[in-house]
Amino acid sequence: MALTDQLTGLGNRHHLEACLTQALEDTRQSGQVSYLLFIDMDDFKIINDGYGHDYGDVILKDFASFLKSDFGSMANVFRFGGDEFVILMSPEHTDSIYAVINSLLARAQLPWHVINKSFYCTLSIGVVHFPEDDANSKDIIKHADIAMYQAKRMGKNNYAFYSSTRDNDSIARAEIEKEMREAIDNGFRGFSVVYQPLTEATGNIIGAEALLRWILSTGQTISPAQFIPLAEYLGLIVPVGEFVLREATTFCREINATRPDFYASINISIRQFQQQDFLERVLLILEETGVSPSNIIFEITEGMVMHDIQRVKHLSDELRQHGIRIAMDDFGVGYSSLGNMRELSIDIVKIDRTFIRDVSTDSYSKSFIRLITDLVHSMGKMVCIEGVETTEQLDYCRECGADCMQGFLIYKPVPPDVLRERLET
Fold first, then answer.
1. 338 and 232, same structural domain?
2. Is residue 224 in a domain?
3. Which end of the chain is more exposed for a tag (fewer CB within 10 A), N or C?
4. Of 5, 40, 83, 330, which residue is the catalytic one?
5. pLDDT digits over 159-180, tens only?
6. In terms of DSSP H, where are the helices of 162-209?
7. H/E element holding 248?
8. How high is the pLDDT of residue 117?
9. Which residues lie below 8 Å from residue 395, measured CB to CB, with a gap of 6+?
10. Domain tally for the chain?
11. Range of the domain at 120
12. What is the DSSP string of 11-78?
């Protein structure tokens, strides 16, 4: 079995596990302690993907040389894989741990020079001391990895120590963050798109909202209320959003073969709207999947509008020029207005579920739904009412003249195969 990384000449993962196993045995016998540092190069993937492996490989080799020259006398240094490296400190040098950390972070403030370009690549460092009770080498590496993701969550160019007494929620979050990154790097493993139908008053299905689901490798289902904000926080919402767009447009094109008017309604985040090439990326995906833009609706929220109304207006106009319709989602709970809606040329207003929920007990909710429906219709736009869960609510939607309805009473979110079968019957 090879023990050396071919690119950098450092020890590889197998060599690390062997050395760490021996170090654990030695420290348990001697009563000494030592440290393992798990290092990740922040944003290295951007450099590697943007400029190619020729540039990325030079940075990896230069970083490996730096680790070996600066710390080789007090530690063993390994390339764990990709842009991850490990420093295994000798027990005799444990008092230098902070000097090592500071040296690493200081180097990361300086550029890496490759050919005629300069790149900056900060570091996230997870630190674990050992031995730890009955922990084996794999446990130690896992703990250092968790600490590294804690450091990454704290901000770039940072470090964190693992502690067995760390709050369980924090550890769980770090593990979820790690799995999300790995899932996205491996073709969105565990992610899937389900569809909640939108129907007319007659019950006829006219479209479906695409909703993202995520199941961890352990089988645990993570709520969108948890993982969508996490994806936003980690800066991963753009690739996640493109995954949903690609899945939904592919499904919509398949359905359009027999139902040409069926549309897919897709939620768009403010982060996606802020991308300078958002429109180009959208049009490219639509071209690749073969769906007509007229069969796509983008749902935006009132919060997005108020965050940057000029940007949203500009993009909404461009999207509509290409045939994509725009829906205002969760209307009535934010700070937007009908004036903003008219200025943005919204095609559909989706009234938030909180109003239909209270329609049997709250006269204000009843009046609000009827008023908004009449006003929106007078502007030549469509109204969709979300959150229909009882027959009384459904009857009131019909009474008000809503163009479409959505909710668990009508249809729950279902996998694409299930919806496809229902549409064929």
1. yes
2. yes
3. C
4. 83
5. 888 876 555 556 677 778 889 9
6. 168-185
7. helix 237-256
8. 81
9. none
10. 2
11. 13-166
12. B-HHHHHHHHHHHHHHHHHHT--EEEEEEEETTHHHHHHHH-HHHHHHHHHHHHHHHHHHHTTTEEEE
